[in-house]
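Hello forum,

I keep getting stuck at the same step: I have a sequence, I want structure tokens, and every attempt I make locally crashes halfway through. Rather than fight my setup again tonight, could one of you with a working pipeline run this one for me? It's a single chain of 91 residues.
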Amino acid sequence: MSGFDLGRLEDLIACPECHAKLVVVDQGLVCAGRECRLSFPVREGIPVLLIDEAETLDEPDWQTTVGDSLEVEESTDAEEVEVEVEQENES
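Reply #2:
Ran it on my machine without issues. Output:
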């Protein structure tokens, strides 16, 4: 299958509906926004970021799909904040 490495696109694209981060999952991209919960397909290696083509995930399905990714991201963000605070305190 040709196309882009979806992992590399993750930092460049956002949900077209709510502008939240998109999380790469098995065969697509899922919006990290709890209220939005759109799942976008990838066809022939190309993300289809059309709202009309997206599927809205139920809350439990969304949590299962993006929960692990969000936990990793939140812990990384928390660590970055701690480092910044420590650096400010040292100044």
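The helical segments are 6-9, 59-90. If your local run keeps crashing, start a new thread with the error log.
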